[in-house]
Amino acid sequence: MIEAKKINFSYSKNFALKNINLRVKNGEILGLIGESGSGKSTLLKILSGLLSQDSGQILFENEEILKASEKLVPGHKEIKTVTQNNTLFPNISIAENIKYELRYYQKSYQEEKLKSLADLVKIKHLLSKYPRELSGGEIQRVLIAKAISDEPKVLLLDEPFSNLDSIIKKKILFELKDIISKQNIACVFVTHEITDALGLVNSLVILKNGKIVQKGSSEEIYFSPKSEYVGLLTSDGFIINNVSLLEKLHINEASKILLRPEHIFFKNTGKIAARVKHSIFKGSHFEIWFSIENDPDSAYYFKSEIKIESETAISLDFEGYLILK
Ligand code: ADP
Ligand code: MG
């Protein structure tokens, strides 16, 4: 288990992490989400012991771990980080790269461990190759094998899969979830792509400008965002403040509503008159962009199985939208 308690840290006047509290149990994945520059990587560096917090504690299995500034060699051997960087040695094979992590063990253990890691992350066929012969997804698998080779208790992932194709990424994420639970590792998974995190994590922490603005399960965060920031980070959506529209929906003017594409329904008898602007082909569906009557500059979309011609007048209903305040 790894835990952050009342962590404060600043690089300068411009950016600070403020009062960060979080906890990840063994076998679980915590998703850390926030826009670029919100402090995700900084927080991971503090968790891994590579950067010293100004105040607060990092606890590993209930014991405080030394700050980077208090140690000769920063970092903690039970805590491993994987980022987007390819840290493999280019001139030795994949097998040698992984065995390098196991260099202090007996040869027979190294071979045995290499085999089981290769099985676990599905890279058996790559062991005799060199890093330059591997694709991005294969390299990331090898980096994970390296990171978990010495059986760490904590795995910190800083957007390691962000530049992979979506199908390969999904496959690796499923495998990762399996590994985390089989090896009973506590994992923090940082991403700015919420769709990667929603189905993967046991809980989510949302960072904004160095502060935690919401914590909860994926469902809680998705269905009950506390703010516009969280609402729009978790899905496409629109903030509605058109007064006449709010009136039609019988919503108090002071409220702010968050409308997601799935809240908008095309209905002959719908309460809201709209005009179609564009239909964008998305493969499995069309995104129908429209403006609301009396507000020609507004732009929202809903998903439709059929294309609708531009300038068509349609009527819509909004159901299940979220009221933010
Ligand atoms: P994220 O990973 O969420 O994109 P970071 O933790 O990398 O965010 O950065 C948070 C803020 O701290 C940003 O404003 C960034 O410019 C700043 N920052 C990051 N690293 C340093 C550094 N070494 N020195 C000064 N400022 C930094
Ligand atoms: Mg980052």
UniProtKB/TrEMBL annotation:
Domain annotation ABC transporter: ranges: 2-234
Q: Which domain of life is it from?
A: Bacteria
Q: Kindly give the PROSITE patterns that the UniProt entry links to this protein.
A: ABC_TRANSPORTER_1, ABC_TRANSPORTER_2
InterPro entries assigned to the protein according to its UniProt record, in alphabetical order: AAA+_ATPase, ABC_SmlMolc_Importer, ABC_transporter-like_ATP-bd, ABC_transporter-like_CS, Mo/tungstate-bd_C_term_dom, P-loop_NTPase
Q: Give the transmembrane ranges.
A: none
Q: Which key words tag this protein in UniProt?
A: ATP-binding, Nucleotide-binding, Transport
Q: List the signal peptide residues.
A: none
One GO MF term attached to the UniProt entry: ATP binding
* Residue ranges of coiled coil: none
Entry protein name: ABC transporter ATP-binding protein
